[in-house]
Amino acid sequence: MVYTIMINAVVTDIEGTTSSIAFVKEVLFPYAARQFPVFLESRWDQPEVQAQLRAAEQESGQSLDSPASANALFQQWIAEDRKATPLKALQGMIWKAGYEQGDYTAHLYPDTAPALRRWHNQGKALYVYSSGSIAAQKLFFGYSDAGDLTSLFSGYFDTTSGHKQETQSYRNIQQAIGLPAEQLLFLSDVEAELDAAAEAGFQTIRLDREGDQGTSQHRVVTAFDEIDLSS
Hints:
The chain is α/β, with parallel strands linked by helices. The protein contains eight helices and eight strands; from the N terminus they run ββαααααβαβαβαβββ. It has helices at 21-43, 47-60, 67-80, 85-100, 112-121, 134-142, 167-177, 191-199; strands at residues 3-4, 9-12, 125-129, 153-157, 184-188, 203-207, 219-221, 227-228.
């Protein structure tokens, strides 16, 4: 089924929506986990790293006075899949080196890049909202399987706007974009995120890439090809 939606901007999730969850969990997360010890040792005194370490101390209540103690905390957070902003920021720094060295490119579903280009050409403003840091989001779309797509996007949002299952986060995003909420479409594979966005007044569509997520109170598609924004 194709859904025809009248909107002026799209806010999209990444994992499970534009891209496979497996890429993040099986490529990016393990890469950062392996690189953390050397990264912390070599960049310990850099101001941008120290800023995230201080933020991690506040969030964890632990003193991070050495690369070893910091690495232990971040490895724990990675294992727990914590959405901690300091962790995401440091992971982004590590992933940047991996992208630039050509260690990997970011996975996209085959329909993602054509749809993003089509919507952009139709005059729709495109935004990303992911739990990964804004820096990591820009790297993801800058070094994607389909090349550099960053010119298609008008902006990026991460957990500094709030957590993704909280309605206020979407109100914050709507205010930052400056359009009425009913003119915004949020795309995600997570029901609770879509619930929060809908409560904030967004239009919503759930991506069920494998077609096995069951029922939803939101419109459901299996690919971006099923979304028509031409109106």
